[in-house]
Amino acid sequence: MKAAVYRRFGSPDVVLLDDQPKPTPRRGELLVRVQATTVSAADYRARTKHVPQGLKLLSSVTLGIITPRTPVLGMDAPFYATVGFVAATILAVLLVAGADLHA
Fold this sequence. Notes:
The protein is an alpha+beta fold.
């Protein structure tokens, strides 16, 4: 299958159209044929690593430090799942430590 991929961070010229193996759905998953899609803000931020100042370290761990962890654009679900897990972990640590979240 064809996919828009990037193997380094940078401007739009780092994005290439490349052949990728067709994914095999696992139990409970579904493979959907996509005819067209959009480029989202998440794709832009993943490709450029242009993120808000407070998220630089977290995004580097999630997106990749030197090269992209997930080179196929449009694969932001793993990113948000990881961010959600990390945010939930931080919240749990704050609650266990007795932090006043209403301050």
